Amino acid sequence: MRRALMLALALFSLPALAAEPKPFSASYTADWKQVPVSGSAERSLQKLDDGRWQLVFKASMLVAGLTEQSTFSVDGDTFLPHNYKFERSGLGKSKDVEFDFDWTQKQVIGSDRGDPVRFPLNRGMQDKSTYQLALQHDVAAGEKSMSYQVVDGDEIETYDFRVLGEEVVRTAAGLIDAIKVERVRDPTQSSRKTILWFAKDWDYLLVRLHQVEKDGKEYQIMLKSGTVDGKTVEGRRD
């Protein structure tokens, strides 16, 4: 009896293994408030043949467009970025960023708009794509306040978030129950605003994002259609 009890306690004390990410593919409408023409955006996550994962985001409107791509692996409940690329054209000045995360040498090496960048690499550090998946994972786990160290251009930035509550989002796929999350910024340092909505019933897929830039320009993406782990995303109908 005592041995059985000790075994049960030992099992309960073991750290829970994180569930493997579920592949997804989502299409969005993309709107800039100052531009009368809507654009489109695509976001997808797939597992590669070598066991790593690839997250891709693409957005386009008229002659403007951007592509963001991250390759990473998952170790327990930690996302480990390996390579990050960002390309933007047609939106003011073009921008090219690329980082390699060398976990053997514990360093980040890359370039930001042609300028060389090098940082020491610590476990838990994210790129500008993988932090979104880490946020998605933590929201699904019931966290209310989250913080991430993110390689952002030529700096390591701290991204803080808080859960605002639940909200129903009206999408082309139907009404979707979502968790509303806000990026926390010091208002004396930045006037930018970022709010994200994650679908409760669809592995916390991003269904809406609203961004207000420091110059007042607004940008939003809204789910049009998607699949999660091969299943078509379907919300409620009126």
The total of beta strands comes to 15
Helix and strand run: HEEEEEEEEHEEEEEEE
* Rg (C-alpha, Å): 19 Å
**Main beta sheet:** 15 strands, antiparallel
What percentage of the residues does DSSP assign to strands (E)? over 45%
Q: What structural category characterises the helix and strand content?
A: mainly beta
What features would you describe in this structure?
- The protein is mainly beta and 238 residues long.
- It has one domain.
- Helices cover 10% and strands 56% of the residues.
- It has two helices and 15 strands.
- It has helices spanning 2-13, 130-140, and strands at 24-32, 39-47, 53-61, 64-75, 78-89, 95-102, 107-112, 115-120, 145-152, 155-171, 174-184, 193-199, 206-212, 218-228, 231-232.
- It has a 15-stranded antiparallel sheet that branches.
- Strand 2 and strand 3 (53-61) form a beta hairpin.
- The longest helix has 12 residues, at 2-13.
- Residues 1-18 form the signal peptide.
- InterPro entries: DUF3108.
- Pfam families: DUF3108.
- This is Dehydrogenase.
- Keywords: Signal.
Summarize the topology.
Blueprint: H1 2-13, E1 24-32, E2 39-47, E3 53-61, E4 64-75, E5 78-89, E6 95-102, E7 107-112, E8 115-120, H2 130-140, E9 145-152, E10 155-171, E11 174-184, E12 193-199, E13 206-212, E14 218-228, E15 231-232
Antiparallel strand pairs: 1-2, 1-14, 2-3, 3-4, 4-5, 5-6, 6-7, 7-8, 9-10, 10-11, 11-12, 12-13, 13-14, 14-15
